[in-house]
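Components:
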Amino acid sequence: EAGVAQSPRYKIIEKRQSVAFWCNPISGHATLYWYQQILGQGPKLLIQFQNNGVVDDSQLPKDRFSAERLKGVDSTLKIQPAKLEDSAVYLCASSLAAVTEAFFGQGTRLTVV
Amino acid sequence: AQSVTQLDSQVPVFEEAPVELRCNYSSSVSVYLFWYVQYPNQGLQLLLKYLSGSTLVKGINGFEAEFNKSQTSFHLRKPSVHISDTAEYFCAVSDHGGANNLFFGTGTRLTVIP
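Structure:
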């Protein structure tokens, strides 16, 4: 079974630029999560989708971050414009349902300079 | 409100020695506890979880954890570590049984010394 796929693996941008990350969850998984993991900290949930609807985006900085999950499969997370403090690993995870185990992708390491 | 405290940020241990990684939690509702492992440049992998039932939970790669409600702890143990266990370990708590509302600790870096 293929796991959660994320791309790119690494990205370096200058502050005030825009960036987008892509996630392809495990086939059939209805729930998709984006986490932000800042160096030295645990992952923090940014947004949770159930199919193509948003369940929880309370910790998403909506002035600069946006995410979508068209057709309830792939998802993209965008930052526009990026700030230095956005430097982190962005992890995507998926699960069959919200109450079952989440499987994580390898993450995208973003460096904002 | 939920929170997780991982008391040790780094734990060095010699190969084949036992190890315990400590985790304390606070939660105002029913609690479900998890340990995840993150190998270098990899995503998180579930090691084990406590949902209900026996307080001693066995996971993958020879790890186990014990849920102690009175001490609000969920420490991770392995009787004999290998070089391949070198990784970052995260304790997490949820008020649901699964991935919903997972709240992670800051992590413990386990380094196994040959």
